[in-house]
Amino acid sequence: MTAVDSTRLGAIYARGDDPWRFRSSPYEQEKFRATRAALSRQRYGSALELGCGNGELARHLAPLCAQYTGVDAVEIALQAARRAVPRGRFEQVFLPADLPDGRYDLIILSEILYFLDRDGIRSIATQIDRRWPRACLLCVTWLGPSGNALQGAEALALFRAASMRELHCVKTGVPYRIDRTDVLP
C-alpha cells in the first residue's frame, strides 16, 4: 500500500536531516508561508501533519495550534522535527497505517500523497473521513516529477476521488498547488 519502501526513505535522509533544503531554500520557505496563508482560520485546537519530515513546515504552523502532532517514517527526520518544534509530538509511522489518536481540527498532507500507492491513498482518505469528519484538511501537492510511481496531480486526484470531502484549490503556484476543505458544519 506504499509505493516507496522504508529503505528508499532512509536513503533520502542518508546525508542529513534536510534532503530537500527546507531550511535554506527560498522556494521552500515561500511555499511554507503560502501554506500558512492558505489556512481558513487563525487558530486550531489540534493539528496532525502526515509526512512531517524534519518539522520545517511544522515550525510555520504549530504556533497557530494548541497541540501539534506530526508523523513520518524516518527517525532522523523526526529527531529534527522534535528540535524544530520542541512542544510538538512527533511519532514514527510508516504510512498507510493507523494514525495517532487525537481530536484534530486540522490535518495537513504536504507533498506526501505521491509516496503512497492507490490503495494507500484510499486508506488514508477513508480513515481521515471516518475519524475526523469535521477537520479542516490542507493538501500541498508538488506538480513536478516526483520520482515515484505516482505523480503529484495523479495522487491528489486519487485522494479527491476517495474522500467524501470537497477540496478547493486555494493557491496555484509553479510547480505546486494548495487545496483545502473547510470545517464541515
TrEMBL record:
Entry GO MF terms: S-adenosylmethionine-dependent methyltransferase activity
InterPro entries assigned: SAM-dependent_MTases_sf, SAM-MeTfrase_NodS-like
Gene3D superfamilies documented for this protein: Vaccinia Virus protein VP39
Pfam families: NodS
GO biological process, one term: oligosaccharide biosynthetic process
Descriptive protein name: Nodulation protein S (NodS)
